[in-house]
């Protein structure tokens, strides 16, 4: 079991509020991803759950038990650090088994569990090496091995893939997803990477300045952002946000429309603009169009579209896919 | 040195300094060896004659030599033990966020800046003096008989003085190493539920191994030739109780005016130092690679 509940959790460093009242429910077996801009408090929130920081206010419950004052090791969680934080003078075997050793697990059982974890992670051949003799991806797997071998209630990941190169990142992402799926263990995962968030998460938590902006499944956030912040943060390229007269026409202070929901035409459309940049990435073409009185609009069009910079183009947003926001930036539902 | 080209270039560039260093070392060493083969007494100048290994024979069969050798080893070993253990403990303490940490650090470093002669005099006259010393005063406060350190425990007294001088050095090096301990690794250990003692022995000590090696190697070099503290406090006595090899060589040359014998002693000291160095490098030097 690994159900985690946060009730009004707050954290201040000195006089600076970093986490300002967070309520969150993580169900057993769920994969939850925290995203948000740098410095918004993702790591801090994760460390509060881990017990590496004390809360200033509120309660943290694991399986219904208040653990706010419980030391990290007693919470039954495992953490994978961004820098891996392996013990450099110990072999891979000792690294993975260290938590079990501290918990007083007898040697044979420990070895059996370590070897099982190593087999899952393709580390069997490296059990007697030191971390310094491994590649980045292998080190990452050792860190994950250290986390799974203790059979925790939940995994906590703090940007675990950010030190890896792009190709390895994709592999490890799949591996983490597969592992979490087969173990069925709750996971909380912090990342900057949109793709990681969208692909891994059952539930995404968007944080901004120490507060939760929205919680929901990846598609929910993509299709129904609750406010301007989430609308601008989720999705790449970013959603086009237009305010002023063009928005008032649709009965909102600001309207948002995703690049793929804008159609182009050489002759007719709602907005008339000039192409400033056209990026051809094969399957798609991204057009950056300057529209007078409205601003720059990003359009995702088919790959074969042959528009040169400087060309005139008409744009029409798909009315049914427009997001409307009121004066305070909250979504207007209709 | 990535390529053969840079390798050769590197060698050529460092050659002048190597030659200079080599001459710097080999000339005095050669002269000392030469003197050690002569009968050369300052009481009888102009009568130098070649006597072969006779000086060595006298020096090595002198009972004082074995006493001095034992004293040297005890002194070095004891001071190393005290400074390394004490240094680790003080460094651990100073790594904590305590009140007035800056001042405490400055005070801990201070003894290193005091000249050996001065610190020996301070210890002898202000601290360990059986009548007017601070320790005697404290003993009397508790109704105990003051200890006459330099008469009753002369070698221990020297060990304490030298340890006091070298503790700051060890502390400083070890503190620096301690501060480079990875914060996330500490947190990982915390998540693994490592109790404080296990954390110290399984994480901190291995992390400090390299720094401890450096402390031991550097201190040994200097501790083999402790001299000023002995001259100022006990003058090698009572009897031979505090005579180490360095002091024995001094006594040979300037108290008995025997340059030949002193040179032989000097060479013996060099050989001994090298033996100790080889042992040390074998024993702990493997911590330095990797
Ligand atoms: N120990 C600390 N003392 C004081 N302020 C801190 C401390 N740790 C974090 N902060 C502050 O708290 C805020 C949130 O930090 P946190 O590390 O949680 O951000 P983050 O969302 O993980 O950012 P990133 O994506 O860059 O890792 C930052 O403004 C940071 O300066
Ligand atoms: Mg962070």
TrEMBL record, chain A:
- One matching Pfam family, short form? TOBE_2
Q: Where is the ABC transporter domain?
A: 4-234
Task: Return the EC number.
Answer: 3.6.3.-
Query: What family does the Swiss-Prot or TrEMBL record give for this protein?
Result: Belongs to the ABC transporter superfamily.
Q: Which UniProt keywords apply?
A: ATP-binding, Hydrolase, Nucleotide-binding, Sugar transport, Transport
| Source organism superkingdom | Bacteria
Q: What is this protein called?
A: Multiple sugar transport system ATP-binding protein
Question: GO MF terms on file?
Answer: ATP binding; hydrolase activity
From TrEMBL, chain B:
- Would the keyword Cell membrane turn up in this protein's UniProt record? yes
What membrane topology does this protein have?
A: Multi-pass membrane protein
**Residue stretches spanning the membrane:** 12-37, 64-91, 103-123, 155-178, 199-224, 230-250, 262-284
Family annotation (InterPro entries): MetI-like, MetI-like_sf
- The keyword Transport is annotated on this UniProt entry: yes
- ABC transmembrane type-1 domain location is 69-280
Q: Which superkingdom heads the taxonomic lineage of this protein's source?
A: Bacteria
Q: Where can this protein be found?
A: Cell membrane
Q: Which UniProt keywords apply?
A: Cell membrane, Membrane, Transmembrane, Transmembrane helix, Transport
What's this protein's family per the entry? Belongs to the binding-protein-dependent transport system permease family.
- What name does this protein carry? Sorbitol/mannitol transport system permease protein
């Amino acid at each position: 079991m690994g159900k985690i509940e946060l009730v009004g959790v707050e954290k201040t460093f000195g006089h600076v509020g970093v986490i300002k009242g967070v309520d969150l429910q993580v169900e057993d077996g769920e994969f939850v991803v925290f995203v948000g801009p740098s410095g918004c408090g993702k790591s801090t929130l994760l460390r509060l759950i881990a017990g590496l920081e004390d809360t200033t206010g509120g309660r943290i419950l694991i399986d219904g038990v208040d653990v706010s004052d419980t030391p990290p090791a007693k919470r039954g969680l495992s953490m994978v650090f961004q820098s891996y934080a392996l013990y450099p003078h110990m072999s891979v075997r000792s690294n993975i088994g260290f938590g079990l050793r501290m918990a007083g697990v007898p040697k044979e059982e420990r070895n059996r569990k370590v070897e099982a974890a190593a087999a899952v992670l393709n580390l069997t051949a490296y059990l007697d090496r030191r971390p310094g003799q491994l590649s980045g991806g292998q080190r990452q797997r050792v860190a994950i091995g250290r986390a799974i071998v203790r059979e925790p209630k939940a995994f906590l990941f703090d940007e675990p893939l950010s030190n890896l190169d792009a190709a390895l990142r994709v592999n490890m992402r799949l591996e983490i997803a597969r592992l979490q799926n087969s173990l069925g263990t709750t996971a909380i995962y912090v990342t900057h990477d949109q793709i990681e968030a969208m692909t891994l998460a059952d539930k995404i938590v968007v944080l901004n300045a120490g507060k939760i902006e929205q919680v929901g499944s990846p598609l929910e956030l993509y299709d129904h952002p609750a406010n301007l912040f989430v609308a601008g943060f989720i999705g790449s390229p970013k959603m086009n946000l237009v305010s002023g007269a063009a928005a008032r026409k649709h009965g909102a202070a600001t309207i948002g429309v995703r690049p793929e929901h804008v159609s182009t035409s050489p002759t007719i459309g709602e907005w008339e603009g000039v192409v400033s940049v056209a990026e051809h990435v094969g399957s798609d073409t991204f057009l950056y169009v300057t529209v007078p009185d409205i601003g720059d609009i990003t359009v995702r069009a088919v790959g074969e579209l042959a528009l040169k910079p400087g060309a005139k183009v008409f744009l029409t947003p798909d009315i049914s896919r427009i997001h409307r926001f009121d004066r305070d930036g909250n979504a207007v539902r209709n | 040195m990535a390529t053969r080209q840079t390798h050769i270039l590197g060698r050529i560039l460092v050659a002048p300094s190597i030659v200079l260093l080599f001459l710097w070392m080999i000339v005095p060493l050669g002269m000392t060896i030469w003197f050690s083969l002569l009968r050369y007494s300052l009481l009888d100048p102009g009568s130098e004659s070649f006597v072969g290994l006779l000086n060595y024979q006298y020096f090595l069969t002198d009972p004082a030599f074995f006493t001095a050798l034992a004293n040297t080893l005890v002194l070095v070993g004891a001071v190393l033990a005290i400074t390394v253990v004490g240094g680790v403990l003080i460094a651990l303490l100073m790594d904590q966020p305590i009140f007035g940490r800056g001042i405490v650090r400055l005070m801990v470093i201070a003894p290193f800046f005091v000249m050996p002669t001065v610190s020996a005099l301070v210890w002898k006259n202000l601290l360990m003096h059986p009548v007017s010393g601070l320790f005697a005063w404290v003993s009397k406060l508790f109704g105990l008989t003051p200890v006459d350190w330099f008469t009753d425990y002369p070698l221990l007294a020297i060990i304490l003085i030298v340890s006091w001088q070298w503790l700051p050095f060890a502390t400083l090096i070890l503190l620096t190493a301690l501060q480079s301990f990875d914060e996330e690794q500490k947190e990982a250990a915390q998540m693994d539920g490592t109790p404080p003692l296990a954390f110290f022995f399984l994480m901190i000590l291995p992390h400090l191994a390299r720094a401890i090696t450096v402390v031991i190697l550097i201190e040994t070099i200097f501790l083999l030739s402790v001299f000023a503290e002995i001259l100022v406090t006990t003058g090698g006595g009572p009897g031979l109780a505090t005579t180490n090899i360095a002091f024995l060589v001094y006594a040979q040359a300037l108290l008995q005016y025997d340059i030949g014998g002193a040179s032989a002693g000097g060479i013996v000291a060099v050989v001994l130092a090298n033996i100790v160095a080889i042992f040390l490098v074998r024993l702990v030097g493997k911590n330095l690679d990797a």
